[in-house]
Amino acid sequence: MRMSDVLRHLRQQQATTGARPRLLHRYAGFLPVSADTPPLSLGEGFTPLVHARTLGRAIGCPELFLKYEGMNPTGSFKDRGMVVAVAKALEAGAKAVICASTGNTSASAAAYGASAGIEVIVVLPAGRIAAGKLLQAQVAGARVVAIDGNFDDALRVVRELAANGDGIGHPVTLVNSVNPYRLEGQKTAAFEVCDDLGGAPDYLAIPVGNAGNISAYWMGFTDYRDAGLVETRPVMLGFQAAGAAPIVEGHPIEHPETVATAIRIGNPASWEKAVRARDESGGRIEAVTDEQILDAYRDLARYEGVFCEPASAASVAGVRKLAAEGAIDPGATIVCVLTGHGLKDPDTARRNVVPTLAAAPTVEGVVEALGW
Ligand code: F0G
Question: Which of 263, 264, 337 to mutate to test the pocket of ligand 1 (most atoms within 8 A of CB)?
């Protein structure tokens, strides 16, 4: 055999045995996909499960793990659901998709829509979208409409547009998490958690906005249990941003400048499903304050090297709060879902760092700046 043949042979072998698998192939048996579903993929899923040893010890929960969903292609968990929703829309002959968003859904819809070659329309609450998220949608060529209202207003508008079309014969598919394919795709994160741990964790902690993702994880854990792949399901712990409804009182919802705008939602679309997940698992859905969220956000980056977006840190903030109240068994295995990447929101990051040190372009200058 010539050397080039050997190399080609090796490469082919690698392609079949060592290639990165596709999420929808890996879990095809649990998903509503078939040979007719277009093979859409940007490499979603397979995100890291990080053992947070330092933070875990500090909180009093040494078996604390982080499901780092910021490592998805557009930097959030939305990609797991969007790949299924857009593939199914394509399969059904759709030419356009539409969504309301606090930023991550729109970034994901824009990317998968671009990849699928269909039009993407996003409706956003004006002035409340983190810089990175808005740019992601714009760069990918989505048509962005900013309304003078909140997320709930945007969702009401897009639901109506998707139901009725635009009146001149342009059907659009709604890809918010009320689209059932979104939750089907997002449940794969629960499968990965079980696969990585060799069983279900004792607790699964997660930020709650529209309550789609907590519902999707519960579906995933239930599917795996029903298939006999795990014996138990975790206690589900959901955390809303203080000020969001319906469980939190005392704060108005209009907090455009707050840190967790991604999950500050007045009327969560999947609330009943989330309540079922909470009650069937013996769990809780509680609120965490901006201060608690920011503390967790900073500590995750500083002690674990995991930079997530502020809303994501609600899961760790909530676990820290419950652990301090003695509500969590210290020996328990806890998985905190970190739903988005820190680079989504450079403005919050900037407000939470020490300034850079200025120095002359010399060794002496840098030494002096460091105070050595
Ligand atoms: N974490 C982040 C970073 C989010 O962007 C969202 C929701 C959630 C958690 C909550 O997930 O809605 O399924 O309970 N973001 C939506 C959006 C609303 O438009 O990007 P949920």
Answer: 263
pLDDT in tens, 306-365: 999 999 999 999 999 999 999 999 999 999 999 999 999 999 999 999 999 999 999 999
Nearest to 310 by CA among 282, 290, 329: 290
Ligand 1 and 211: CB distance under 6 A: yes
Distance of CA 206 to the CA centre of its chain: 10
CA distance 275 to 268: 11
Residue 354 CA, distance from chain mean position? 28
Looking up tokens 């969590």 gives: 328
CB 72 within 8 A of CB 45: yes
Instruction: Please report which confidence band the pLDDT of residue 254 belongs to, taking 50, 70 and 90 as the band edges.
Output: very low
Residue range 151-175: mean pLDDT, rounded:
86
pTM over 0.85: yes
CB 212 less than 6 A from any atom of ligand 1: yes
Residue 370: partners with Cβ closer than 8 Å, 6 or more residues away: 357
Verify whether ligand 1 is closer than 6 Å to residue 261 (CB atom). Answer: no
- Ligand 1 atom nearest the C-alpha of 238 is 14
Whether the CB of 102 sits within 6 Å of ligand 1: yes
Residues whose CB is less than 8 angstroms from the CB of residue 362 and which lie 6 or more positions away in sequence, other chains included: none
Q: Is the CB of 189 under 6 A from ligand 1?
A: no
